[in-house]
Amino acid sequence: MSLIPEISNPYIGAFAGGLFYGLAVCTASCLPYVTSYIAGIGAGFKKGVKITLIFNSGRVLAYALIGGLVGLFSGLFRLLVSEEALSPFQVYSSLAFGVVSIIIGSSILLKVRKPSECNNANMIIERKTNRFGVDFGAFSLGLTRGLIICPPLILLLSYSLPFANPAGSVAMAVLFGLGTTLSPILLLGGVTGWLFSKAPLFRKWISIAGGGLLIALGAVTIVSSATQIG
Fold first, then answer.
1. Are 70 and 89 in contact (CB under 8 A)?
2. How many angstroms separate the CA atoms of 160 and 156, rounded?
3. Among the listed residues 109, 126, 127, 121, the one whose alpha carbon sits nearest the alpha carbon of residue 47
4. What's the CA gap between 72 and 164, in Å, rounded?
């Protein structure tokens, strides 16, 4: 069975479902965090696209981990597939995402407030990025965001239970994640970086705004999640 009834192959259906979901819902929910981070670090077009790709790679890894767990513990997942049973996991995942957003936003503001240390810090980040090919801030945001399981992914993995082994569940989750990656957010991340690079005189204030917005978004996420506990 496929996520999209018109597509018989479940793996193609998973990828197509990710494409469809990424067109609107995924872009709307992730874009504020991505653009805030891009503003905070002062990325241009190319780096904005790269940051968006790294953010999405974190989400795809989270989906792969979830898919693997579902494949390994499929019997337990059958019992936990309801929205009520998954609610505690969703709440604590949201709390973790909110905390990570606040930490990253705060680190951006600290670097802006310490210009004498900013250049050294940026050089360290640049060396890490060149060596490992990963921006750890963007990756952490994407990973924790991906752990908040979206309804289409739950539906997809519940479809995979009757026939998919752990490897199949991981493959379907990854294909779904790759589908969401090929969404407008990729272009919008680059455009955001390009627009901000056109205002070099306001770069400091753009960075402050980006860091502050990440903190605000994280705080809203935490408050919203906290109200669901108990």
1. no
2. 6
3. 126
4. 10
